[in-house]
Amino acid sequence: VKDGSIAALNTKSDQDFLCNNHFSAYNIRLADGYETFRPKYLTPLRDGKYTPENYAQAGISHIISDTKWKDTPIPGWELAMTGPDFKLYANPAYKGRYFADDTPITPDKRTANRIHLTIPPHAQNVTILESYHPGWKAYAGDAELTITATERGGMSIALPARDSEQKLHLEFHIPYSKWYHSIMVVTLLSLIIIAIRQKHSERKEKI
Per residue in 61-75, pLDDT tens? Predict the structure, then answer.
């Protein structure tokens, strides 16, 4: 799967046969996962046609299906593996999730809230096939770059002109996180003050 994600087709609503938690243990992303690219409004992924090109543009490299799934084999997809209760199909149109202009690139490091990329010389734009969210921030050195949403809901970043390689890193920050932390601190201080006052009043009553 590498840096791609898996779309799951299952006749069971609970998807127990997939052992979803096991995917994350092997650093495999489900296309329906919270950190991956499959917004509900992306209708090409919900038309039941499983068009490889549409799935590739959403960063989906594989489909895993229950052996009872009615639409197998999936037209245009390559059967990569068969298990006792699943079939794994590879997307021949998949080129990657991260692109410098039109060239696929591999992240230097990727976590749930950080992406580190080395951008080749003369690249003008980076496209990332993961869901756009205003919480994502992009930096080239100390300079913050603007992230815009693509037509399909991914992320696009215009780069400063460089004749050499440059480092790009993205960080995800929860919106209003500063307010959240401030509220937590105020709440904690309030609880401490209440506890101190209660102890003080108990001592007075004993006296």
Answer: 998 887 777 766 788
- Residues 6 or more apart whose CB falls under 8 angstroms from that of 45 comprise 7, 31, 38, 54, 55, 58, 60
At 96-106, the pLDDT tens digits run: 989 999 999 99
Name the nearest CA neighbour of 38 among 57, 23, 53.
57
Can you tell me whether residue 99 is helix, strand or coil?
strand
Burial zone of 176 (CB within 10 Å; 0-12 exposed, 13-18 middle, 19+ buried)? exposed
| Structure-block tokens of residue 141 | 């050195």
Report the candidate in 148, 16, 175, 154 with the shortest Cα–Cα distance to residue 85. 16
Residue with tokens 């006792």: 84
- Cβ(7)–Cβ(28) under 8 Å? no
- pLDDT at site 36: 47
* Residue 9 near residue 69 (C-beta atoms within 8 A): yes
